[in-house]
Each structure stands twice: as structure tokens, then as C-alpha cells.
Write a structure and sequence with these properties.
By secondary structure, this protein is of the alpha+beta class. Helix content is 24%, strand content 20%. The protein contains 22 helices and 31 strands. Strands 3, 4, 15, 16, 17, 18, 19, 20, 21, 26, 27, 28 and 29 form a 13-stranded mixed β-sheet that branches. A 4-stranded antiparallel β-sheet has the order 7-8-10-9, covered by helices on one side. α9 packs antiparallel against α12 and α20 runs antiparallel to α21. The protein is globular, with a radius of gyration of 25 Å.
């Protein structure tokens, strides 16, 4: 799910998720905390950032006997047990898994502050420097404070900060299911990435751009391909991990002066397979073998009930503000939307985090009395959406995605779902996002106001004018001819290894199956969208009634087939990830979920729109902009200004060019915002997602919890670090 570029060694948010897992290390690579995190649209999870008073340390030891020093928190998004490195280097991961990551991964050299910016973590970092080299590269050197330890008391050293960059830049990690692009921005990556244990031309066991300088210092040298970079300081942001977690037992990190490398039997093979790959893959879900670095440890995990118990890590010295936790035990439970309020009032949970939707918000606020239950609310840093797969099926066509947008009355949808606690957005932003506020008066966006007639016109322009026999489409026909068909070009028919030739609707409860037909050697695809929605989910229900089963959709010659399941299955289909239940056959072109910005660095979406297959998992939409074929971005080429690039491209800048230039060409905030505006405008035109709402989050909690303050960049899980149970 996305080996991005920006926040790989850095944030992890996981992708979500998503998606900073905690700590927040990031480099221009993969991303388990990449640009934005995937969330269930009923109970997403935001990240960190917000100010709150520290608990009363004087009473934290014993309490007054009124309450147990424990907090139960829940989320309607399932936990999967993917806590050690949420998302495994992909772009996004479930919100609940990210919450556990935030609570158990600590001492990142950079962490997310209240305003969404990454800041240096003085608890972990003694000093840091940046040196711009004559060859156009840049070296970031970091010295770690001595005395930091994992939860079992073992010292945290520079090796623990480098282990992810080394392990997950190797072919061994790729065999273990990881993207393997963790250190792609550093010099020497290609040679190290190609090394399989035997010296060969073009390979190197030493990673030249990753240096172990001493027990407590390291450096990374960024290639001139990736520097200058708007968020350049994030290159040095790494999180510490136990060595064995990512390397297996018996492997060490060494540096003889030419670059860090992996010792022992890391590259040992059994036939064509790396022996360590299986061990590393198994470590992903092992919660007992290796210690934790964050404020909490996972002391119990029940996969059957999807419940995790976290207890204090006594070795943890604090976050970037030196904040340490007071709450002794956190129990993370699975909540069901229909009964979550009852769980709160009965003590089944102490926190309903990120409550949204008009009905749920109104009901939750009704119990807030300031004595037993309290609340805090804020505009979320994200939005709910319909998301499309754009590399096969009808949704690979821009006019289809636009037509669906015109067939859904988003204003009514937003009002119905949020009950007035949200607004409609028209692109990849939330209303309070700084760069959006800077450009909102100048940006020019297509108005997708409800218009079935516009939808029909777009479909006809796009060639959806046939029936299943290759004849003219007639509105009102029945059976397989109730929908429009499009004659595919040879390139379109062969997309995704010929998936369009066998494309067919699923979940055909009415007994009618729409499928691609071959007529005289030509392929005609039906306008039948396979949609996967999570359940139980009010948004799924609302899309079903207002769009999928609407008479306007049917009259337009389109059908949407609905399949429902849990959120992890949805993620598996989006990211085509077998460990999340994907069966190897791309089936669904439409999903509903939500996305959030865990930090302002998540606005970096470079490598998410690349035509290079190596970056495929970076793109949750799998959309490749044709403009980029005619005017591709060249990292090694001249860094044009926005105006110059518009002129040179004939005013046809593609998504890859815009996203890359936004962070590699921009040197000032004004330049960044100008590229960002162009990016939003092109995104709005292509519609890889349909934004449905950007809503307010209401965190409703038991008043026994004090100093609990959340905000757009500090969700409930992160806020617990600052909170305390009354009497402690």
C-alpha cells in the first residue's frame, strides 16, 4: 500500500493508516504513514497535535481510590494486530492499528506537533546538522541522547534508528512482503537494493548514503535527485526499532567507513529464497518477542475479540515535549456503531473518539453533562469520500468518475450524514488546512452540483453509447441492456493484464450479470460498477439509497453492484494485499472510506501518481495521468517555476508532475502553495475520489479522564499521553 516518497522512514501513519505510525520517521520512500491515512468513514482516527496540561505527578502513584487507573477506548475500525510497524511500509493502514502504533512506538527523532508540523524531538536527539555538499547532495547528521532504552531495559543506539532503512531497502524485505524502498532517497540505494549477498557489478553490501558514525550518531546523505526538497529536514527523521524485529536473530549493523551494512546470515538463501524473509514476515505480528520503544507496551492481544491491552512502559522518558503518561492501563476495544453510545454510558468504553454523523453526534452530545461525560470537538484534518480504482473497469475512465459525482447530490448527502456538523469539499483538502486557506480564493474548480443530464452528456462524450450487442444504447431497456457499454481500444482492453476483457459485475442479487462482451474481435465493457463498502456503516447505507439504488443512476444507464464486509477486507481490496484478504483478482472499482492528514508533510503526494511500476503500491487510486506521458517530470532536469512549467506543457500539467514539483521545485511557502493549487485543480478534474464531507469530530469521554484535549493533529490515542484518570 504505498512506498511513497515522503514519509517513509519518518512518519507512520500510518496510511492510514494513512497514512505516522507514531514517532514519525520519514524519508522520500515508502510510507506507512504516508500522505494520508485510510480510515473507516464512520470512525476514522486522526493523529497527534494539541496542547494539554500535564497530569498531577504528585498524585499519580496511588490515586484516591475512586477510580481504577485504567481507560477503555474504542473504535469501530477493526484492530488486526499489525502494531509493530503498522502498514508494513505501505501507504495506509487501519486507524485502530495506527492508534496502537502511536502508543507503542516512541523516541522518533521528529514528532508531530500541535500545528501538524514535524519538530525535532529533544528527548531523543542531542544534536542535528545539515550539510549541503558540492555535488548537490545533502548530509543530515544526528546524535542520539544516551540513556534511552526499550521497554525491557536494553539500550537504544544509533543502530536501532538505522535498522528500518537498511532492512527495508533490501530484496530480503521485499520477499517478506515489504515494498523495499525505505532508503530510496539516499545515495547508494540502487546498489544496496540490488545486493543479494554476493558481490556483482552494480551492487554493494554497503549502503553509501547511510552511515553508522558511532554508537549514538548516524548520518544519511540524500541524493541530488531528491534534494532540494521542501520538507528536507524530514529525511533525518527515523524511529528506533529492535534490531531482530526487522533483521531476524543473529544479524548486526556495521560500518567500515564506506556505508552501513548488514552482517551475519541476513542474505542466506535456501534455494532461491532468503531464509530471513520468513522470519521477518513472522515478526510483523509477533507482539511478545521484541520490546517496545513508546509510552506503552502491548501486554495482551485477543484476535478473536479484537481487543488489545496496553500497559505503561516504565522505561519511557517522554515525547518531544518530555511528556510521559500517567494512565496505567489502556484497553482498546472494538465498538459497533449502533451500540457504541450504550457502551459509553454503561462503562464498556470510556471514550467515543471522533464521533461523526448527525445522528450519532446528536445522540452522543445528549449525554454530555460536564459531570459524568464531557466532550471536545474540532474540524477534522481530512474528509470522507468515495474512492476509485482507476486502472481497470469502468472507473478507469475519467468521464465515469465525473458522471458519478454529478449523479450524487453531495450537498444533501453531507447535510443528511453530518446533521450540519460538516461541509462539502471539492478536492483533497479540509477547510482548516493552511495551504488550502491560502489558495481558496484563487483556485478554479469544477462545480459538481447534482446534474443527471450533465452525467449523461459526459458518458456519451466518453463513448458509452452502446448496448451489449454493439448497437445504440436505448434508455429504459432491461436485462443486460439496461446499462451502457463502451467499445474499448486495444490498449484499454489489455489494461491490467487483460482484466477488462473478463470484467463482470458481482453481487448480482437480481440474477443479471453484466460482463464485457466480444463482438467481431472488439470488446465492449458494461457500465456496471462493483462497489465495496464496509458495514455496519451509515455512510455505506446512505450511498446505497442516494446513489447506488437511485432512479437517476438507472436512467443514466449505469448500475452499481454493492458488496459489503469489514474494513480490513476493504483495505485488502484497495491495496491488493493478500494478508488483508485479497484473493489476487481485482474486482472492485469503488469504495467508501475516509482519509486524514496526520501531519502537514502528508500534503506531499509525490510518487503516488508515478507511471513507474516500482511505485505502484504508492497509489491507492492507481491513476496514471495521461498528461504526464506528454510532459513527464524529471528529477534530474531543470526545476521550473509553476508559470514556466504551465507554459512549457501547454497548460497540461499532470498529477505526477504537479505532486513532484510541489515538493522538489518549491523553495518557499508561496511557491509550494502555487503548486498545491494546481494539484488540487487537476485532482478535481480527474476525480480519483469523490469528496463527500469534511466534518467535525466530537470526542465524548467519561469525566473521570482529566486533561484530555484533542485537535486535528492529535487524536484520542495520542491525547492519552497528556491525560490522567481523576485521582492519579
Amino acid at each position: 500500500m504505498k512506498r511513497r516518497k515522503l514519509l517513509a522512514l519518518l512518519l507512520a501513519s500510518a496510511m492510514a493508516m494513512s497514512m505516522a505510525a507514531c514517532g514519525n520517521g520519514g524519508t522520500p520512500t515508502e510510507s506507512s504513514d504516508s500522505s494520508s491515512q485510510a480510515e473507516s468513514d464512520e470512525a476514522p482516527s486522526s493523529d497527534e497535535g494539541s496542547e494539554s496540561a500535564p497530569p498531577d505527578e504528585g498524585s499519580a502513584a496511588a490515586g484516591d481510590g475512586t477510580y481504577e487507573n485504567k481507560v477503555i477506548m474504542g473504535n469501530t475500525t477493526d484492530l488486526t494486530g499489525d502494531f509493530r510497524y503498522p502498514g508494513w511500509g505501505t501507504s495506509s493502514v487501519g486507524a485502530s492499528d495506527q492508534d496502537i502504533g502511536r502508543l507503542t512506538i516512541g523516541y522518533g527523532t521528529q514528532e508531530v506537533a500541535e500545528d501538524g508540523n514535524l519538530v525535532w524531538n529533544d528527548t531523543a536527539v542531542k544534536s542535528h546538522t545539515k550539510t549541503e555538499n558540492e555535488d548537490g547532495t545533502a548530509t543530515f547528521t544526528v546524535e542520539i541522547n544516551e540513556g534511552l532504552t526499550f521497554s525491557d531495559g536494553t539500550p537504544i543506539t544509533a543502530k536501532n534508528y538505522l535498522v528500518r532503512a537498511l532492512a527495508f531497502s533490501s530484496p530480503v524485505a521485499m520477499e517478506a512482503g515489504h515494498p523495499g524502498m525505505a532508503g530510496n532517497a539516499f545515495i547508494g540505494f540502487d546498489e544496496f537494493h540490488a545486493y543479494t549477498g554476493e558481490e556483482a557489478e552494480g551492487t554493494s553490501k554497503e549502503f553509501a548514503g547511510v552511515r553508522l558514525l558511532s554508537d549514538y550518531s548516524y548520518s544519511v546523505t540524500v541524493s541530488s535527485d531528491y534534494y532540494p526538497y521542501y520538507f528536507a529536514y524530514t529525511y533525518a527523521g527515523l524511529d528506533p526499532y529492535p534490531m531482530g524485529l526487522f533483521l531476524g536473530e543473529g544479524v548486526d549493523i556495521a560500518d567500515d567507513g564506506n556505508g552501513a551494512y548488514l552482517t551475519g546470515n541476513f542474505y542466506e538463501k535456501d534455494g532461491d529464497s532468503f531464509v530471513k524473509a520468513k522470519e521477518i514476515e513472522e515478526n510483523r505480528y509477533d507482539l511478545t518477542k521484541y520490546p517496545f520503544s513508546g509510552p506503552y507496551v502491548v501486554s495482551d492481544w485477543d484476535a478473536s475479540t479484537k481487543q488489545a491491552t496496553l500497559t505503561l512502559n516504565p522505561e519511557f522518558k517522554g515525547n518531544y515535549e518530555g511528556q510521559t503518561p500517567s494512565i496505567e492501563t489502556i484497553v482498546y476495544v472494538k465498538l459497533i456503531q449502533e451500540t457504541q453510545l450504550e457502551e459509553l454510558t454503561s462503562g464498556g468504553t470510556d471514550i467515543l473518539g471522533e464521533v461523526t454523523g448527525g445522528k450519532d453526534t446528536t445522540a452522543a452530545l445528549a449525554v454530555v453533562d460536564g459531570e459524568n461525560f464531557s466532550e471536545v470537538h474540532y474540524q477534522r484534518a481530512g474528509y470522507g469520500k468515495i474512492q476509485f480504482d482507476c486502472d481497470f473497469g469502468p472507473t478507469m475512465f475519467q468521464e465515469v468518475r465525473q458522471a458519478i459525482a454529478y449523479l450524487l447530490n453531495r450537498t444533501e448527502f453531507c447535510q443528511t450524514f453530518t446533521g450540519g456538523y460538516g461541509v462539502v469539499v471539492d478536492g483533497p483538502y479540509s477547510p482548516d488546512l493552511g495551504p488550502w486557506k491560502a489558495v481558496q480564493d484563487d483556485v478554479e474548480l469544477i462545480d459538481y452540483s447534482f446534474s443527471p443530464e450533465t452525467a449523461k452528456a459526459l458518458l456519451e462524450q466518453g463513448g458509452w453509447i452502446y448496448n451489449s450487442k454493439g448497437e445504440d444504447f436505448v434508455e429504459g431497456a432491461d436485462g443486460v441492456d439496461a446499462v451502457r457499454y463502451k467499445k474499448l481500444t486495444a490498449e484499454e482492453a489489455n489494461a491490467l493484464d487483460g482484466a477488462n476483457k473478463t470484467y463482470a459485475s458481482v453481487s448480482n442479487t437480481d440474477g443479471v450479470t453484466y460482463e464485457t462482451v466480444e463482438i467481431g474481435g472488439e470488446y465492449y465493457m458494461p457500465l456496471a460498477i462493483n462497489w465495496f463498502g464496509s458495514t455496519p456503516n451509515e455512510v455505506t447505507d446512505l450511498i446505497s439509497t442516494t446513489l447506488a439504488n437511485s432512479s437517476d443512476l438507472a436512467a443514466a444507464g449505469m448500475v452499481i453492484r454493492s458488496t459489503t464486509g469489514d474494513f480490513n477486507k476493504l483495505l485488502g481490496e484497495i491495496y491488493r494485499e493478500p494478508s488483508y484478504g485479497y484473493n489476487g483478482v481485482p474486482t472492485y472499482g469503488m469504495y467508501n472510506l475516509a482519509t486524514g492528514f496526520s501531519a502537514l508533510t502528508n500534503l506531499d503526494t509525490s510518487y503516488q501518481w508515478s507511471h513507474d511500476p516500482a511505485w505502484f503500491t504508492n497509489s491507492s487510486n492507481k491513476l496514471y495521468d495521461p498528461y504526464d506521458l506528454d510532459f513527464p517530470y524529471d528529477l534530474k532536469g531543470e526545476k521550473l517555476s509553476y508559470e514556466a512549467a504551465v507554459e512549457a506543457s501547454g497548460d497540461k500539467l499532470g498529477m505526477d508532475y504537479l505532486s513532484m514539483a510541489m515538493v522538489y521545485n518549491a523553495a518557499t511557502e508561496d511557491e509550494f502553495n502555487q503548486w498545491y493549487m494546481g494539484y488540487v485543480e487537476r485532482w478535481n478534474e480527474l476525480m480519483p475520489d469523490i469528496p463527500l464531507y469534511s466534518n467535525y469530530y466530537y470526542d465524548v469521554f467519561n469525566s473521570k479522564i482529566e486533561n484530555f484535549h484533542t485537535s486535528p493533529f492529535r487524536g484520542p490515542a495520542a491525547a492519552l499521553l497528556y491525560a490522567n484518570v481523576k485521582g492519579f
